[in-house]
Amino acid sequence: MVHETLFAQHFWKDSNRTLSYYLENMQGYQSAKKVLKEMKPDQVIEEVKKANLRGRGGAGFPMGMKWSFIPKASEKPKYLVCNADESEPGTCKDRQIMRYTPHVLIEGLLIGSYAIGCKHAYIYIRGEYVREAKLLNEAIDEAYEKGYLGKNIFDSGYDLDITVHRGAGAYICGEETGLLNSLEGKRGEPRVKPPFPAISGAFSCPTAVNNVESIANVPYLIRMGGEAFAQLGKIDKSGGTRLISLSGHIKTPGVYEIQAGSMTIRQIIDELGGGIIGGKKLKAVIPGGSSSPILTADEIDVVYDVEPLMKVGTMMGSAAIMVIHEDTDLVKLLLRITKFYAHESCGQCTPCREGCHWMESILHKILHGEARPTDLELLVDVAQNIGGKTLCALGDAAAGPVISFVKKFRPEFESYIKGQKKYA
Amino acid sequence: MPKCTIDGKEVEFTPGENLITVAKRAGVEIPVFCYHPGLTVVAQCRMCYVEIEKMPKLQTACSTNAGEGMVVKTQSDPVVKGRAGTMEFLLLNHPLDCPICDKSGECDLQDNSYGYGSANMRHSEERRTYVDVDMGPVIEKNMNRCIHCTRCIRFGEEVAGIHEMVAIKRGNNIDITTIDGDPLKTLYAGNYADICPTGSLTLRDFRFRKRAWMLKKTPTVCEGCSKGCNMEVQQEGNIIYRCVPRENLEINKYWMCDEGRMNYHYTQDGNRILAPRSKSNAISWDEAIEALKEKITGKKPTFLAGSDLTQEELKTLSEYINAYHSGSHLYHFGTEGVFTASQDAPLDKILRMKSKTSNLMGAEKLGIKPISEFSSSSDTVIIVRGGRADLKVALSRVKAKNLIGVGVFLENEVENFDLILPGTAFTEKDGTIVNHQGREQKIKRAILPKSTVKTLSEVLMLAANKKTKVGAA
Amino acid sequence: MTKLLSEKFYTAMKKLEPRYPTKKALILPALHQAQEEYGWLPKEVLGEVAEYIGVHSAQIREVASFYTMYNLNPVGKNHLKICTNVACCLRGADELMNFAEKKLGIKCGETTADGMFSLTEEECLGACTTAPAMMANDDYIEELDVNKLNQYIEKMKASK
C-alpha cells in the first residue's frame, strides 16, 4: 500500500474539486506549464513510455505506445478523445476522478493533446453521469477563465479547446470505435479495423482514445518523471497506482488506490474490503469487471495486475473486483450477466447478435428447470462459437463468463438441470 | 507483382485487393453475405472466415488485404467450424420459408447453408418475429427472413443517396425498415431485391410468378435510356418474367434503375399491336404491304425513325430510302428537348440519362438529322419505332394526310394512324446500340417474336418488291 | 407548422455548433436537449431535430432508437431506473425491484395510470461500490434499501 496516494486522498470532499484547491494542494497545472514551455511533444511521449503507464480502461495497452502511433505530420487535424463511458459492470472509479479531481483530468488532456498535436479534445462521458458531466463542464469553465484552456496557454502559442460530449446509454460506446461513431452522431456501432483510430478515427482524422484514469495520471507522471512513476508500480511493465472498484459481499466496498501489482486479490479483499459480510465464506471473485472469467475462492492468491491475471486465465480489465459469498446462486448471476451482454450487443455481427440472446435463453431454461442434459454442452459450444469470432470484444466479454462459470462451477448448473435445485 | 498462397496455390495480387477477390482468381470461392464489391466493407456477417498463418484468430477475408507471402487456408478445420457456427446463428431465427419464398434457387443463405452449414437444428427456443411494413410498390419486405447483413442500408446510403431504409433498435431486436410507413421513394428500389442475400427484400413485380431455376437468361442491354445499363432478360416459355442488371464496371457497375427494370412490360402488354391494321381494321400482311406500296411507291414520304432502333435497323432504313425514295427526308426522334447527343445529360448522380432512348448517339453517328431540324413534310409520313421513342415528339411537329407506323405501338397511341405494320421489340431482336459514352453494345434476342410481326428489313424488302427469306432478320 | 421546440433549444445548439467539425456530431447533444425540454421524444420532435441537423428524419430515428436514454415513448414524471446488474444484484437489487413493483402497483417497464411513476430495470449505472443504486430521473440514489426507496416514493407522491 502506498502511504500517500495520488488520487484517493482527495476523494470524498466536494470542496476539493475546485480550481483553487487544485492549485493550492495538488500543484495544479504546474506539469502542463512545464510541458508547454520546456518540453517537445516527442519528449512527453518518451516520458510516458518510460513510465510504463498501461491503459486503465480495460485493455491495458501501454499509453506511450498508443500515442506514438499518431502520425507526426498530418494534413488533417488530430484528436484526443477521453473515454469516460465507464459502463463495465463493477466499475466506478472514473466517476470519482471526475467528481473530486476533475482538474487532474483536464491537465492530463492538456498535456496529452500537446503531445500528439491535438487542438480540440473531447471527453465522451456516459449519458447517465449527468452530475459528473455538469461538474466537468464547471471545471472546464474555471480552466478557460484562468487561461489554462483556450488560446495561447501559458504564452506558449499552443491552443486547446475541450468539449464534453454526453453519451446516451450504450455500453458498446465504451469500445473505442463505437465511441468514435457515437461522437460523430451515429449509432455507436464498432468499426472494422483496419483502419485503426490512430490513422482514421474521429471524423476520419488521426485519433487517440484513452481512459479517464490513464489521462489523469499524466500530470503526476510528468511531475515525478517517467522512471519514478514506473517505480511506483511493484511489478514489471506496470507503473504508477491503480484505482480499484471493490464491491459485492464485503464489509467496506469502495474505490481504493494501490501501487500497481502490490497486492494479491486475497489481500485486497481482506485488508481493503474488510473481509466477507455476515461471517460468510468466500465462494468466487469476478476480478476485472463482468467481462473477466470468474475465479474460485482457491484462486485468489494471484497478484492483482494485468500480466499475472492473464497468466491464470482471467483479466484485470477495468480493475473492478466483485466479491461473491457462498449463498449466491451463480446460475442466476450468470443469467444476469449474459442478459446484460445480450441487451448491450449492437447487433452488427452475427455471433454476438444471435448468440448472446441464445445463451440467455438457454440459461433461462436451465434456471427454470426446463433444460435438457445436453443443454449445458450446447451453452458452452455456443459460447465458444462467439468468443474470438466477433467484430469487437463484446463477443469475447459475453463468452468468457459463460465458459468460466460452467467450467468452475459445473455442479451448480447440473443440479438445476437434474431438478435437484429449483428456482424460487 | 506480390504473391500470396491460397490453399496451396500461389496467386499474384495488386496491393489493396482483399482476400475474397484474390481467392476468386485462384479459383477459390469464399462464401459471403454482407460483402458486396459495390459497397463498403463492414465485416459483419462473419461468414468469410479464413485461416492465415501466424494470426491466432480467424480473419474475415473481406476486410483483410492480401499481403506478400501470406499463407491463407480456406478449408481448414477451424474455418469449417467457424462457418458452420455462423450458419447456425443465422438460421436460429430464419423461417423455413423456402417452399413459398421467391428467392429459393438463387438464395445465398440456401447455398451457403447447403455448402457450409449443418443439417441439424440445436435451437428449440421461440423465434424472433417482426411486423412487416409496406415499403411501396416495388419492394416486398419480409423482415423475419432478414439476416441483418445491412447491404440494403449501405446501398441506400452509398449508391442511391437515400436514407429511407434504416436500422432501428439494437442487438437481437434490430429492425431494418422504413420509418412511419413511408414507402421507398428511390427510383433504384429494384436493386434492393438483387442485393438482398435472402428473401427478405423481393420484387413485387416478380412475386410468386416463376421459380428462379426455371428461368432462361439472356444477356442484353437495357433500352430505357442512353446509359445502356447491362441487363439480363429472364424468360420461360417465351414470356419474360424479370430483368436484372448485369455487372459492367464501365457503365452501370452492378445496378439499374426501376424504369429500366420494369420497361419490358410494355412489350408483353395486351394493348401491343401484334397484327397489321388499316385504321382500326385488322388486315393481312399481304393487304398491309399492298396498302403501304400504294401510299409510298415512287413518292417522297417523310421518314421519322425512333432513336430506339438498332444501328442495323437505322442503316437498313437509310439504304432503303436512298435506293427507293431519293429526296425523302429522314429524321430521328426520341425524347422531347433531347434531340442531339450534346443535349443529353445525366438526370441524377447515379445512372439515369435525359434521353429516354438507348441509341441517340448511334443515330447521330450515322449522320441522321434530329427532328429539331424538321422543316416541312410531305403528305405521307412513316414513323419507324422500336418502342421507347416518344411519339408525341414526332406527332406534335408533323402533320400528315397519311400516317404510317412501322414497329412497336400500343393501342392508345395510334388513333390517328392510317396503317400499322407491327415489328419486333428490343427483347425480340439482335442488334447494336451506342450509349451516351459512345460505347457500342449488343442487344440480344431473348424471346421469339410473335409470328404475326415482321422485322423492319423484311417489311422494307417487301415494300421494295424484293423476295424475302422466311424469318429474315 | 408550429415548432414544438423552443428558442432555448436552438440557442443552446447554436452555442455548441463551433465545437464540432460536422453538424451531424450534434445529433446526440440535440436529442438530449430536446428531451430535456419536451420530456420525451415523439415523432414530431425527432422531425424537428432532423430539420435542424439537416438530415432525413429516418437518420435521427435510427440514432435515437440505439440508445436507451432516449425515450421514444412518454415516461412518468418520476422515472425510477433500478440497476439489477452484478454488483447491485449481489446487494439485493432484486428485492428492491420486487418492492417497487408492489408499491407502485405496476410491473417493470410500465408507467402508473396517473403518469407519476415509471419503473424500469437498468444496466450497471457505475455506482457499484455504493450498491444497490438507482436513478430517479437524472439523480442517483445510492446505498438504497427498501426503507429508503419507500421514503423516496412517498416523498414524490406527496409533492404532487
Structure notes:
The complex is a heterotrimer of chains A (424), B (473) and C (160). Chain A has 424 residues and is of the alpha/beta class. Chain A has 18 helices and ten strands. In chain A, the strands form two sheets. In chain A, strands 3-4-2-1-5 form a five-stranded mixed β-sheet. In chain A, strands 7-6-10-8-9 form a five-stranded mixed β-sheet, with helices on one face. In chain A, α3 packs across α6, α3 packs parallel to α11 and α15 runs antiparallel to α16. The mean pLDDT of chain A is 95. Among the domains of chain B are: 88 residues, Ubiquitin-like (UB roll) (Roll); 188 residues, Rossmann fold, CATH 3.40.50.740. Chain B contains eleven helices and 22 strands. Chain C has 160 residues and is of the alpha+beta class. Chain C folds into two domains: 60 residues, Orthogonal Bundle (Arc Repressor Mutant, subunit A); 81 residues, Glutaredoxin (3-Layer(aba) Sandwich). Chain C has seven helices and four strands. A four-stranded mixed β-sheet of chain C has the order 2-1-3-4, covered by helices on one side. The chains are: A alpha/beta (424), B alpha/beta (473), C alpha+beta (160). Chains A and B meet through α14 and α15 of A and α2 of B.
Can you tag this structure with a few keywords?
heterotrimer, A: 424 residues, alpha/beta, five-stranded mixed β-sheet, 18 helices, 14% strand, B: 473 residues, Ubiquitin-like (UB roll), Rossmann fold, eight-stranded mixed β-sheet, 11 helices, 22 strands, 21% helix
Distance N to C terminus of chain C: 33 Å
Give the H and E element order of chain C. HHHHEHHEEEH
Major beta-sheet overview of chain C = 4 strands, mixed
**What is the tally of beta strands of chain C?**
4
Low-confidence stretches of chain C: none
CATH superfamily of the largest domain in chain C: Glutaredoxin
* Number of separate structural domains of chain C: 2
The CATH C-level name of the largest domain in chain C is: Alpha Beta
- Biggest interface pair, counts: A-C, 57 and 41 residues
Beta-strand percentage range of chain B: 15-25%
Radius of gyration of chain B: 27 Å
CATH architecture of the largest domain in chain C: 3-Layer(aba) Sandwich
Biggest pleated-sheet summary of chain B:
8 strands, mixed
How large, in whole angstroms, is the Cα Rg of chain C?
18 Å
CATH architectural label of one domain in chain B: 3-Layer(aba) Sandwich
Cα separation of the termini of chain B:
49 Å
Which bin fits the share of residues in helices of chain C?
Answer: 40-55%
Low-confidence stretches of chain B: none
SSE class of chain B: alpha/beta
Strand order of the largest sheet of chain C: 2-1-3-4
